[in-house]
Design a protein that fits this description.
Elements (H helix, E strand, L loop, with lengths): L2 H4 L5 H11 L10 H8 L3 H13 L3 E4 L4 E4 L1 H13 L1 H17 L2 E8 L2 E8 L14 E3 L4 H9 L2 H11 L6 H18 L15 E7 L8 E7 L6 H22 L12
Protein backbone atom coordinates (compact mmCIF):
# COMPACT_ATOMS: atom_id res chain seq x y z
CA UNK A 1 0.00 0.00 0.00
CA UNK A 2 1.37 3.44 -0.95
CA UNK A 3 1.60 6.46 1.35
CA UNK A 4 -1.20 8.08 -0.65
CA UNK A 5 -3.61 5.27 0.15
CA UNK A 6 -3.13 5.73 3.90
CA UNK A 7 -3.84 9.46 3.67
CA UNK A 8 -7.34 10.43 4.86
CA UNK A 9 -7.76 12.59 1.76
CA UNK A 10 -7.32 9.58 -0.57
CA UNK A 11 -10.62 8.69 -2.32
CA UNK A 12 -10.57 4.90 -2.54
CA UNK A 13 -13.75 4.64 -4.64
CA UNK A 14 -12.37 7.08 -7.20
CA UNK A 15 -9.10 5.13 -7.35
CA UNK A 16 -11.01 1.91 -7.96
CA UNK A 17 -13.04 3.51 -10.73
CA UNK A 18 -9.89 4.69 -12.44
CA UNK A 19 -8.38 1.21 -12.14
CA UNK A 20 -11.39 -0.09 -14.07
CA UNK A 21 -10.69 2.39 -16.89
CA UNK A 22 -6.99 1.42 -16.92
CA UNK A 23 -7.94 -2.23 -17.39
CA UNK A 24 -8.91 -1.65 -21.03
CA UNK A 25 -6.46 -2.24 -23.88
CA UNK A 26 -6.59 -1.27 -27.53
CA UNK A 27 -6.86 -4.90 -28.66
CA UNK A 28 -9.86 -5.68 -26.42
CA UNK A 29 -13.20 -6.38 -28.06
CA UNK A 30 -14.94 -5.13 -24.96
CA UNK A 31 -14.64 -6.50 -21.42
CA UNK A 32 -17.17 -8.12 -19.14
CA UNK A 33 -17.30 -7.54 -15.39
CA UNK A 34 -15.55 -10.84 -14.70
CA UNK A 35 -12.61 -9.93 -16.96
CA UNK A 36 -12.34 -6.47 -15.41
CA UNK A 37 -12.39 -8.02 -11.94
CA UNK A 38 -9.59 -10.38 -12.93
CA UNK A 39 -7.43 -7.58 -14.33
CA UNK A 40 -7.98 -5.16 -11.44
CA UNK A 41 -8.11 -7.59 -8.54
CA UNK A 42 -11.38 -6.01 -7.38
CA UNK A 43 -14.41 -8.07 -6.27
CA UNK A 44 -16.90 -8.63 -9.07
CA UNK A 45 -19.68 -6.99 -7.05
CA UNK A 46 -17.56 -3.84 -6.73
CA UNK A 47 -16.74 -3.91 -10.44
CA UNK A 48 -20.46 -4.18 -11.29
CA UNK A 49 -21.24 -1.01 -9.35
CA UNK A 50 -18.30 0.85 -10.84
CA UNK A 51 -19.01 -0.12 -14.46
CA UNK A 52 -22.68 0.85 -14.03
CA UNK A 53 -21.66 4.28 -12.70
CA UNK A 54 -19.00 4.82 -15.37
CA UNK A 55 -21.51 3.88 -18.07
CA UNK A 56 -24.08 6.30 -16.66
CA UNK A 57 -21.48 9.10 -16.82
CA UNK A 58 -20.41 8.25 -20.39
CA UNK A 59 -16.94 6.93 -19.56
CA UNK A 60 -17.96 3.41 -20.63
CA UNK A 61 -20.41 2.21 -23.25
CA UNK A 62 -22.34 -1.03 -22.96
CA UNK A 63 -23.67 -3.41 -25.59
CA UNK A 64 -26.37 -5.19 -23.64
CA UNK A 65 -26.68 -8.11 -26.04
CA UNK A 66 -23.06 -9.11 -25.43
CA UNK A 67 -22.83 -7.77 -21.86
CA UNK A 68 -19.46 -6.16 -22.57
CA UNK A 69 -18.15 -2.69 -21.82
CA UNK A 70 -16.02 -0.48 -24.02
CA UNK A 71 -14.45 2.98 -23.51
CA UNK A 72 -17.14 5.63 -23.91
CA UNK A 73 -17.33 9.08 -25.54
CA UNK A 74 -16.46 10.95 -22.33
CA UNK A 75 -13.05 9.22 -22.31
CA UNK A 76 -12.46 10.30 -25.91
CA UNK A 77 -13.17 13.91 -24.93
CA UNK A 78 -10.80 13.69 -21.96
CA UNK A 79 -8.07 12.17 -24.12
CA UNK A 80 -8.33 14.99 -26.67
CA UNK A 81 -8.22 17.60 -23.93
CA UNK A 82 -5.15 15.99 -22.34
CA UNK A 83 -3.36 15.65 -25.69
CA UNK A 84 -4.02 19.31 -26.49
CA UNK A 85 -2.98 20.52 -23.05
CA UNK A 86 0.33 18.62 -23.02
CA UNK A 87 2.11 20.57 -25.72
CA UNK A 88 5.08 18.31 -26.43
CA UNK A 89 2.91 15.41 -27.69
CA UNK A 90 1.85 17.17 -30.90
CA UNK A 91 5.29 18.74 -31.34
CA UNK A 92 6.97 15.32 -31.16
CA UNK A 93 4.74 13.75 -33.83
CA UNK A 94 6.80 14.56 -36.92
CA UNK A 95 10.15 14.13 -35.18
CA UNK A 96 9.39 10.66 -33.86
CA UNK A 97 7.81 9.42 -37.09
CA UNK A 98 10.95 10.54 -38.94
CA UNK A 99 13.06 8.69 -36.37
CA UNK A 100 10.99 5.51 -36.76
CA UNK A 101 11.34 5.67 -40.54
CA UNK A 102 15.09 6.36 -40.46
CA UNK A 103 15.90 3.60 -37.97
CA UNK A 104 13.26 1.03 -38.94
CA UNK A 105 12.26 0.71 -35.28
CA UNK A 106 9.03 1.04 -33.32
CA UNK A 107 9.40 4.41 -31.63
CA UNK A 108 7.26 5.01 -28.57
CA UNK A 109 6.40 7.36 -25.74
CA UNK A 110 6.07 5.78 -22.29
CA UNK A 111 4.95 7.15 -18.92
CA UNK A 112 4.86 5.75 -15.40
CA UNK A 113 1.59 4.09 -14.45
CA UNK A 114 1.87 3.13 -10.77
CA UNK A 115 4.37 0.23 -10.70
CA UNK A 116 4.59 -0.18 -14.50
CA UNK A 117 5.67 1.81 -17.51
CA UNK A 118 2.80 2.34 -19.96
CA UNK A 119 2.94 3.04 -23.69
CA UNK A 120 0.83 6.08 -24.58
CA UNK A 121 1.98 6.75 -28.15
CA UNK A 122 3.72 4.70 -30.84
CA UNK A 123 5.20 5.47 -34.25
CA UNK A 124 5.68 2.56 -36.66
CA UNK A 125 8.19 2.75 -39.54
CA UNK A 126 6.37 3.15 -42.85
CA UNK A 127 8.66 1.05 -45.01
CA UNK A 128 9.54 -2.02 -42.92
CA UNK A 129 7.80 -4.46 -40.63
CA UNK A 130 8.42 -3.87 -36.92
CA UNK A 131 7.56 -5.32 -33.54
CA UNK A 132 4.05 -4.67 -32.31
CA UNK A 133 3.44 -3.15 -28.90
CA UNK A 134 0.09 -1.44 -28.57
CA UNK A 135 -0.84 1.80 -26.84
CA UNK A 136 -1.92 0.97 -23.29
CA UNK A 137 0.54 -1.91 -22.99
CA UNK A 138 2.21 -1.96 -19.57
CA UNK A 139 5.80 -3.11 -19.14
CA UNK A 140 7.86 -3.87 -16.02
CA UNK A 141 10.11 -1.06 -14.84
CA UNK A 142 12.95 -3.39 -13.83
CA UNK A 143 13.15 -5.28 -17.13
CA UNK A 144 13.00 -2.61 -19.83
CA UNK A 145 15.24 0.15 -21.15
CA UNK A 146 12.28 2.53 -20.76
CA UNK A 147 11.95 1.59 -17.10
CA UNK A 148 15.67 2.00 -16.45
CA UNK A 149 15.66 5.45 -18.10
CA UNK A 150 12.69 6.43 -15.96
CA UNK A 151 14.39 5.29 -12.74
CA UNK A 152 17.46 7.32 -13.64
CA UNK A 153 15.55 10.51 -14.36
CA UNK A 154 13.07 10.56 -11.46
CA UNK A 155 13.62 12.99 -8.61
CA UNK A 156 14.41 11.50 -5.21
CA UNK A 157 10.79 12.06 -4.20
CA UNK A 158 9.51 10.42 -7.38
CA UNK A 159 11.87 7.50 -6.93
CA UNK A 160 10.64 6.91 -3.37
CA UNK A 161 7.02 7.18 -4.49
CA UNK A 162 7.51 4.61 -7.25
CA UNK A 163 9.09 2.15 -4.80
CA UNK A 164 6.25 2.69 -2.32
CA UNK A 165 3.68 1.90 -5.01
CA UNK A 166 5.64 -1.03 -6.44
CA UNK A 167 6.42 -3.05 -3.32
CA UNK A 168 9.42 -5.17 -2.40
CA UNK A 169 7.93 -8.27 -4.03
CA UNK A 170 8.26 -6.60 -7.45
CA UNK A 171 11.62 -4.86 -7.05
CA UNK A 172 13.69 -4.27 -3.95
CA UNK A 173 15.07 -0.85 -3.10
CA UNK A 174 18.58 -2.24 -3.44
CA UNK A 175 17.93 -3.52 -6.97
CA UNK A 176 16.14 -0.30 -7.99
CA UNK A 177 19.05 1.75 -6.67
CA UNK A 178 21.53 -0.38 -8.62
CA UNK A 179 19.52 0.08 -11.82
CA UNK A 180 19.24 3.82 -11.16
CA UNK A 181 22.99 4.19 -10.65
CA UNK A 182 23.86 2.19 -13.79
CA UNK A 183 21.31 4.04 -15.94
CA UNK A 184 22.50 7.39 -14.58
CA UNK A 185 26.01 6.46 -15.68
CA UNK A 186 24.79 5.64 -19.18
CA UNK A 187 22.93 8.94 -19.43
CA UNK A 188 25.96 10.89 -18.30
CA UNK A 189 28.40 9.09 -20.61
CA UNK A 190 26.37 8.70 -23.82
CA UNK A 191 22.93 10.26 -23.34
CA UNK A 192 20.76 7.13 -23.65
CA UNK A 193 19.98 3.96 -21.70
CA UNK A 194 20.13 0.31 -22.77
CA UNK A 195 19.00 -2.40 -20.36
CA UNK A 196 21.00 -5.63 -20.37
CA UNK A 197 19.27 -7.90 -22.95
CA UNK A 198 19.70 -10.83 -20.53
CA UNK A 199 17.16 -9.32 -18.10
CA UNK A 200 14.73 -7.95 -20.69
CA UNK A 201 11.04 -8.78 -20.25
CA UNK A 202 10.94 -10.52 -23.66
CA UNK A 203 13.75 -12.14 -25.62
CA UNK A 204 12.14 -10.93 -28.86
CA UNK A 205 12.66 -7.24 -28.04
CA UNK A 206 15.65 -4.96 -27.55
CA UNK A 207 15.41 -1.22 -27.01
CA UNK A 208 17.21 2.01 -26.27
CA UNK A 209 15.60 4.84 -24.29
CA UNK A 210 16.00 8.54 -23.50
CA UNK A 211 14.04 10.39 -20.77
CA UNK A 212 12.33 13.70 -21.46
CA UNK A 213 11.46 16.29 -18.81
CA UNK A 214 8.31 18.00 -20.06
CA UNK A 215 7.39 21.30 -18.41
CA UNK A 216 3.73 20.24 -18.59
CA UNK A 217 4.26 17.22 -16.32
CA UNK A 218 5.55 16.63 -12.79
CA UNK A 219 7.44 13.46 -13.76
CA UNK A 220 9.70 12.66 -16.72
CA UNK A 221 8.46 10.59 -19.66
CA UNK A 222 10.55 8.31 -21.86
CA UNK A 223 11.06 8.06 -25.62
CA UNK A 224 12.21 4.62 -26.79
CA UNK A 225 13.21 2.83 -30.00
CA UNK A 226 12.70 -0.94 -30.09
CA UNK A 227 12.96 -3.85 -32.50
CA UNK A 228 13.89 -7.52 -32.59
CA UNK A 229 17.45 -8.42 -31.51
CA UNK A 230 18.24 -9.38 -35.11
CA UNK A 231 17.26 -5.91 -36.37
CA UNK A 232 18.47 -3.92 -33.38
CA UNK A 233 21.78 -5.33 -32.21
CA UNK A 234 23.73 -3.91 -29.28
CA UNK A 235 26.26 -2.43 -31.71
CA UNK A 236 23.52 -0.72 -33.68
CA UNK A 237 21.86 0.65 -30.53
CA UNK A 238 25.15 2.12 -29.30
CA UNK A 239 26.49 3.48 -32.59
CA UNK A 240 23.39 4.45 -34.57
CA UNK A 241 19.92 4.29 -33.03
CA UNK A 242 20.82 5.54 -29.54
CA UNK A 243 22.61 8.67 -30.84
CA UNK A 244 19.74 9.38 -33.27
CA UNK A 245 17.17 9.03 -30.48
CA UNK A 246 19.23 11.30 -28.23
CA UNK A 247 19.51 13.91 -30.99
CA UNK A 248 15.79 13.76 -31.71
CA UNK A 249 14.87 14.31 -28.06
CA UNK A 250 17.35 17.20 -27.90
CA UNK A 251 15.71 18.67 -31.00
CA UNK A 252 12.33 18.48 -29.27
CA UNK A 253 13.82 20.26 -26.25
CA UNK A 254 15.15 23.04 -28.52
CA UNK A 255 11.76 23.45 -30.20
CA UNK A 256 10.15 23.82 -26.78
CA UNK A 257 12.82 26.23 -25.58
CA UNK A 258 14.01 23.85 -22.86
CA UNK A 259 17.56 23.21 -21.73
CA UNK A 260 18.88 19.66 -22.27
CA UNK A 261 17.52 17.14 -19.79
CA UNK A 262 19.68 15.30 -17.31
CA UNK A 263 19.51 12.33 -14.99
CA UNK A 264 17.31 12.85 -11.97
CA UNK A 265 19.17 11.76 -8.84
CA UNK A 266 22.72 12.12 -7.59
CA UNK A 267 23.75 8.68 -6.36
Amino acid sequence: MSDFETDRRFATTLARGLSVLRAFRVSDNGLGNAEIAERTGLPKSTVSRLTFTLQALGYLSHTRRHDRYRPGPALLALGNIASGAISFVDLSEGLMQRLADETGTLTLLAVRDQDKIMLVKTWRPRTVASIWLEVGHRLPVANTSSGHALLASLSEEGFDRLLAETGEETITRQRATEIRREANGQLMSRGFVIADPAIYFARTVQAVAVPFHARDLSEPVVFTCGATPQDLTMERMINEVGPKLRSTVRELERIMGQSPGRAGGEL
